[in-house]
């Protein structure tokens, strides 16, 4: 099976996503963008506390960094939305995809309470979380493909 994301000789990145994959990815940025406007507990891994034992310092840290982190996350989502139907991405666009994919999987993983053992067992199709766990696995795999494509340019 050919990689879904690979570096081309021209230095950009080819996306080999099926229409089904693109359709699945198309709605995710808007869903995360909406969630980012809330205080949903599943966002904790996107904005982890810097000072878990010092609430006052943590509030100060959040005031200094949250807007910048949020702007970066929203930009990555915009890039993914704008290029979900593209056949090729620039390195900058692929970096945006990686940020969006990672954020999506972190939020989904938090909601599903995913731990290392999720990779150790086969997905039970009767598990009510099966569709979300499959999406989590797909996002993780696609992120791995993006990292491998970027790393291929380092050799």
Major sheet characteristics: 3 strands, antiparallel
* Overall residue-averaged pLDDT value: 92
Number of distinct helices: 5
> Helicity range of the residues?
55-70%
Terminal CA distance reads 22 Å
- Strand tally: 3
* Structural class computed from helices and strand pairing: mainly alpha
Spans of at least 5 consecutive residues whose pLDDT stays below 50 are none
**What percentage of amino acids are in beta strands?**
5-15%
The outline comes out as globular
Rg estimate, integer Å: 17 Å
Quickly count the domains.
1
Strand order of the largest sheet: 1-2-3
Order of helices and strands: EEHHHEHH
Quick structural gist:
The protein has 155 residues and is mainly α. The chain has 5 helices and 3 strands, in the order ββαααβαα.
Q: Can you offer a commentary on this structure?
A:
This protein is mostly helical and 155 residues long. It has one domain (5-152). It is built from five helices and three strands. Strands 1-2-3 form a three-stranded antiparallel β-sheet. A hairpin with a 5-residue loop joins strand 1 (5-7) and strand 2 (13-15). Helix 2 runs antiparallel to helix 3 (55-83). The radius of gyration is 17 Å and the shape is globular. The mean pLDDT is 92.
List the SSEs and their pairings.
Layout (H helix, E strand, L loop, with lengths): L4 E3 L5 E3 L3 H8 L1 H9 L18 H29 L4 E2 L1 H22 L17 H23 L3
Antiparallel strand pairs: 1-2, 2-3
Helix pairs in contact: 2-3, 3-4, 4-5
Could you list some keywords that capture this structure?
155 residues, mainly alpha, three-stranded antiparallel beta sheet
């Amino acid at each position: 099976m050919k990689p879904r994301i690979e570096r081309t000789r021209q230095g950009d990145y080819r996306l080999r996503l099926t229409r089904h994959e693109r359709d699945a990815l198309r709605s995710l940025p808007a869903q995360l963008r909406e969630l980012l406007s809330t205080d949903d507990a599943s966002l904790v891994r996107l904005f982890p506390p810097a000072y878990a034992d010092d609430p006052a310092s943590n509030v100060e840290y959040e005031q200094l960094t949250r807007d910048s982190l949020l702007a970066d996350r929203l930009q990555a989502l915009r890039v993914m939305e704008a290029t979900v139907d593209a056949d090729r991405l620039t390195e900058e666009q692929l970096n945006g995809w990686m940020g969006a994919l990672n954020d999506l999987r972190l939020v989904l993983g938090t909601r599903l309470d995913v731990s290392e053992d999720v990779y150790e067992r086969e997905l039970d199709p009767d598990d009510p979380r099966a569709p979300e766990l499959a999406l989590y696995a797909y996002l993780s795999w696609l992120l791995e493909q993006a990292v491998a494509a970027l790393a291929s340019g380092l050799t």
